[in-house]
Amino acid sequence: MPRLFILLLSISVGTLAGMGVIVALVMGYYDWRAILLGAAIGAVLAIPVTWLVARRIQANDPKDSVHDV
After folding, report:
1. Residue 68: inside a domain, yes or no?
2. Is 67 part of any domain?
3. Does residue 64 fall inside a structural domain?
4. Domain region containing 26
5. DSSP 2-66
6. On the CB side of 57, how many CA atoms lie within 13 Å of its CA?
7. pLDDT string in tens for the chain (69-residue length)
8. Would residue 66 count as lying in a domain?
9. Is the pTM of this model over 0.85?
């Protein structure tokens, strides 16, 4: 699962950080601190979200070698 987690994390960090920036801008906060905070919150939230997604993908994978042991 570590490889799957790293691959998914590389996508989800950028996506959720971008969503955090967009939320800050939509709410009318155009200050650089608010934009940076939105990006940081999105990046931090990406870690548990990616962990859950990777676990669910691996649990539903019929070709997973861990379950064959």
Report:
1. no
2. no
3. no
4. 2-59
5. HHHHHHHHHHHHHHHHHHHHHHHHHTT--SHHHHHHHHHHHHHHHHHHHHHHHHHHHHT-TT-SS
6. 13
7. 689 999 999 999 999 999 999 999 999 999 999 999 999 999 999 999 999 999 999 888 777 665 554
8. no
9. no
